[in-house]
Amino acid sequence: MAAPKVAVVGAGVIGLSTALCITETCPSCSLTILSDQFSPNTTSDVAAGMLIPHIYPVTPVCHQQAGLWQPLCLFAKVVIAVAGSNISLWQVFKNTPKEELPFWSDVVLGFRPMTKAELQKFPQHQFGQAFTTLKCDCPPYLLWLEKRLKATGVQMHTRKVADLWELHSEYNVVVNCAGIGAHQLLGDKELFPVRGQVLKVHAPWVKNFIRDGDGLTYIYPGIHSVTLGGTREKESWSLSPDAGTTKDIFDRCCSLEPSLQGAKEIKVKVGLRPSRQCVRLQREVLSQGGVKLLVVHNYGHGAGGFSVHWGTAKEAAHLVRECIAALQDSSARAKL
Amino acid sequence: MRVAIIGAGVIGLSTALCIHQQYQGLTPSLELEVYADRYTPQTTSDGAAGLWQPYLSDHGNLEETIWNKETFDYLLRHLGSAAAREMGLFLVSGYNLFTQPVPDPSWKNIVLGFRNLTSKELELFPGYSYGWFNTALVLEGRTYLPWLTKRLTQRGVKFFHKKVGSFQEVFAQGVDVVINCTGMRAGELQPDPQLQPGRGQVIKVLAPWVKHFIITHDTKSGIYNSPYIIPGSEFTVLGGINQLGNWNEENSTQDHKTIWESCCRLLPELQTAKVAEEWSGLRPTRPRVRLERETLSHGHGQAEVIHNYGHGGFGITIHWGCALAAARLFGSILREQ
Fold first, then answer.
1. Where, by residue number, does D-serine bind (chain B) (predicted)?
2. Does the beta carbon of B122 lie under 8 angstroms from any beta carbon of chain A?
3. Does domain A5-334 sit in CATH 3.40.50.720?
């Protein structure tokens, strides 16, 4: 058969990294990226880009996905060279968590409990963890992914796909990396937004991260700005910044790091975490009237998109290769 | 009571502030004056990266370890205050790297979260097989000195742009006590064969992705003769030069090459960093800090000098502890009068 035509729907960190992995596993494919948004307007652009595996709900099903951040650890050097840093410090808890040693403690670097002297800086918190992990600045990272893709001849088109089936005549395989867009695209009722509002501020003296174990308040220093967060509002679809929330985030972060009072150039951003019990990482065959469209789903990464993107991209590329093998198989059989 | 502080680097200004804070209330007639031919941003303190970190060993100078601790604790207390930004003070974490195991330093319990590096962390630094991680502070001289100056000006301390030729010259003007914070050039006021320059050179680059300090150590080449990288609030400081006996304050192309190549080997991403500035300065190196009283004869009577110089490459690290000690010596002078 002619070079298989693969379309990746979505150009956030999932779509772009998946596309890059596909160029490696299926070099003979003709690959196109279709998205209604590209950087800097994707959900990924808003994200802080921290590698913190524990953001995932750990259900028995998801445990299979437990190793999905390992590939990113191996890829970390490349990310740092392009658009990231290793950053260190503290996750503090008002109440001591049940697990002394979380399952992700050996994924990050230098994990240890905080000392008493360190905890003195946080009078409202009783316990803490110290570690070093990867933080990526997503906008330049996405641009770098786009550049790498274009260099291999991948096409990118701005296009709003209303229904995956509309692609059946142009493409053999569709990879669905639509993120929160999958809600409208597929009507997946298990997918729901968790709204996050963040502030990106100029505070270059902040070199370390601080995160409250409740996941609501965090300070992540990036290359050119510090991300202050945040909110986790389930089922909220609003992409408009809320002024009251902005003040609340700022106050909460200042109570963890008082020097932030001097922060300047405060920009407010909102993203909808495409949340699901588990990432949907599986093949599907759509068929109508004897015509088939092979689909690989890779969406629903919730709050952990950056952490697991490379692992899910590799897995999705593997599934695409299986699809192509199946197509070539049936094409060969058709010739007999 | 007229007190003259000679020298306006971190030692001179902090000693002046400490004395004024402690004794202004007790001695209403206290008049403090600062004399220096170089003020910020031309002092040695302005060029330094400002990382709080003593040398690996205090060589038995336990007093110095105490002064280091007093300084760290003093700065840590200020971290949560609004003053921190104005002082140029912030928290920073990072790595000390070695090619072989070494004993823990005298300051391991002063800094926060001191620990050995894990083997995974050492993989980030090929060529190094042992190391430490800890959280410390940066106090940027270029911001701290103006802050000290402002505090002193508010308190009515007077500043004179003047090169002092001798202690006698100052006493002859009616000054009662001189605080000698002349750093590198203390030998011009009173010969001191133990004081010698430890010439350093640094390259300041734009590399905002660097969030940790990295200090490498080579026991053969000596302290600060091995590459180091220290993130600042605006620039990242690259260094690794410490030439004992070299008085040259001009930048050297050879040293630039040494620093650049060794730091880029340590952190290859630095190759894309833009160079913003280059600076050379002389660490006032001495086997131990000279912090003591000296009574000099002047005319028919006596005059008091408090020496506070010779802080090598750890002036910012030790400054407040020394200021407190100098203030105590001043107190004893007051009591005798």
1. 228, 283, 313
2. no
3. yes
Q: What residues in A contact B83, CB-CB < 8 Å?
A: none
Select from A80, A110, A262 the Cβ nearest to the Cβ of B118.
A110
- The arithmetic mean of pLDDT across residues B321-330, rounded, is 98
- From the number of C-beta atoms within 10 Å of its C-beta (0-12, 13-18, 19+), residue A247 rates as exposed
B95, part of any domain: no
Q: What is the pLDDT of residues B141-185, one digit of tens each?
A: 999 999 999 999 999 999 999 999 999 999 999 999 999 999 999
Are B64 and B58 within 8 A, CB to CB? yes
Question: Across the interface, do A121 and B79 touch by the CB < 8 Å criterion?
Answer: yes
Token pair 């035509």: residue: A5
Listing from the earlier edge strand, what are the strands of the sheet with A173-176?
Answer: A155-158, A30-35, A5-9, A173-176, A291-299, A280-288
Q: Does B155 touch chain A (CB under 8 A)?
A: no
Hey, are the CB atoms on B93 and A207 less than 8 Å from each other? yes
Which residue of B91, B96, B233, B270 is the best one to mutate when testing the A interface, meaning the one whose CB has the most A CBs within 10 A?
B91
Q: Which two tokens stand for residue B13?
A: 């200004």
Q: Which residue range is the domain that position B41 belongs to?
A: 2-84+140-195+286-336
CA-CA-CA-CA torsion sign (A18, A19, A20, A25): positive
Question: What CATH number does the domain containing B26 carry?
Answer: 3.40.50.720
Q: Give the phi and the psi of residue B11 in degrees, each rounded to 5.
A: -70, -50
Helix or strand run (H / E) with residue A272? strand A264-275
Tally the domains of chain B.
1
Give me the residue spans of the domains in chain A: 5-334
pLDDT of residue A59: 47
Predicted complex ipTM: 0.92
pLDDT tens by residue, B250-259: 999 999 999 9
Q: How far apart are the first and last CA of chain A?
A: 14
In DSSP notation, B62-76 reads HHHHHHHHHHHHHHH
Q: CA of B212 to nearest chain A CA: how many angstroms apart? A: 7
Q: Which chain B residue is nearest to residue A204, measuring alpha carbons? A: B233
Tokens for B120, please give them.
């995974």
List the structure tokens of B284: 């006032």
For residue B232, what is the nearest residue in chain A, using CA coordinates?
Answer: A205
Within 8 A of B79 by CB-CB distance, chain A residues are 121, 258-259
Give B135's contacts in chain A (Cβ within 8 Å): 88-89, 118, 208
Task: Determine the distance in angstroms separating the CA of B237 from the nearest CA of chain A, rounded to an integer.
Answer: 14
Helix (H) or strand (E) holding A146: helix A138-151
Interface A-B: count of C-beta contacts within 8 A: 80
